[in-house]
């Protein structure tokens, strides 16, 4: 049913969702290779109920590659989840046909078929509390960048596709996730101490008003974050879009960092994959 409208406010159809994922696949697929996916499905569109699909849906074609891993919520590792692994265009189009508008993945890849490798990414999810916007997120992103630079690390910015900004730090997969989780927490708490009127590191929503949450918790191995180039289930088909540091530094209005599916396809055609350095991590987290 390719004409089924999944974004009613703008008439964006299922066929257009599939078309977007098919065309963005060359730059998207390398970033999710060997990463177990959590699919956020909206079978009746963004204005209706959604659900998270961790287990591969019943009736999946035999060529869809999967991996069985202990459930993140199982303390004794007895329960398993059979995740989808999108290793090609066919699987990506198949997930789009399921109305999996959003793709979420962890900061690690599989090592072999059943064992997570150490993380190859560290993420800082910058989430503004109203009336703060992505503009304030950009100012905080610059502060995070300074601290990372001092430790010999580099960050790649992308929009969340919603209201915030995310910074990804490519890492050699050498250190356990707990080390990365701890480092990210220390950095967020330092910024909160130094810029208490702008930054909060505590997850309590009541503390976020007019500030930017530097969410370090996504570095837990059991958590996932929306993948680069994924659509978001907003009113319009916005995308989690790589941006340049120049765009971050110059941002003064929220609409400057809002990109729709068509915008992103044009940007990739013109700029290439701004997130490509994430595929070639050169630095390790210091001991």
Quickly describe the structure.
With 287 residues, the chain is of the alpha+beta class.
Keywords:
287 residues, alpha+beta, 5-stranded mixed beta sheet, 4-stranded antiparallel beta sheet
C-alpha-based Rg, rounded: 18 Å
Largest sheet: 5 strands, mixed
**Helix vs. strand class:** alpha+beta
Percent range of helical residues: 25-40%
Overall average pLDDT:
95
Count of helical regions: 6
Strand order of the main beta sheet, please?
11-12-10-14-13
Detailed description of the structure:
With 287 residues, the protein is α+β, with helices and mostly antiparallel strands. It is built from 6 helices and 15 strands. The strands form 5 sheets. The chain has a 5-stranded mixed sheet with strand order 11-12-10-14-13. A 4-stranded antiparallel sheet has the order 4-3-7-15. The longest helix is centred in the N-terminal third of the chain and has 19 residues, at 14-32. The radius of gyration is 18 Å and the shape is globular.
């Amino acid at each position: 049913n390719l004409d089924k409208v999944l974004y009613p406010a703008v008439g964006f159809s299922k066929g257009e969702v599939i078309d977007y994922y098919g065309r963005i696949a060359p730059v998207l697929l390398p970033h999710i290779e060997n990463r177990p996916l959590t699919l956020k499905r909206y079978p009746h569109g963004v204005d209706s109920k959604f659900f998270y699909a961790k287990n591969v849906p019943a009736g999946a074609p035999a060529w869809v590659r999967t991996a069985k891993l202990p459930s993140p919520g199982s303390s004794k590792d007895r329960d398993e989840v059979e995740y989808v692994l999108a290793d090609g265009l066919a699987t990506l189009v198949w997930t789009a046909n399921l109305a999996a508008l959003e793709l979420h993945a962890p900061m690690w890849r599989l090592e072999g078929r059943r064992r997570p490798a150490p993380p190859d990414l560290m993420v800082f999810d910058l989430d503004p509390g109203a009336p703060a916007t992505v503009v304030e997120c950009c100012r905080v992103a610059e502060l995070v960048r300074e601290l990372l630079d001092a430790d010999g690390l580099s960050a790649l910015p992308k929009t969340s596709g919603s209201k915030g900004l995310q910074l990804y730090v490519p890492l050699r997969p050498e250190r356990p996730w707990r080390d990365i989780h701890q480092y990210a927490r220390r950095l967020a708490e330092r910024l909160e101490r130094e810029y208490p009127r702008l930054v909060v590191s505590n997850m309590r929503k009541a503390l976020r008003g007019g500030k930017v949450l530097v969410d370090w918790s996504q570095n837990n191995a059991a958590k996932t974050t929306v993948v680069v180039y994924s659509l978001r289930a907003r009113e319009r088909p916005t995308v989690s879009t790589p941006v340049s540091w120049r765009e971050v530094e110059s941002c003064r209005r929220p609409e400057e960092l809002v990109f729709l599916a068509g915008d992103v396809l044009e940007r990739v055609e013109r700029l290439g994959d701004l997130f490509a350095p994430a595929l070639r991590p050169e630095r390790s987290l210091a001991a």
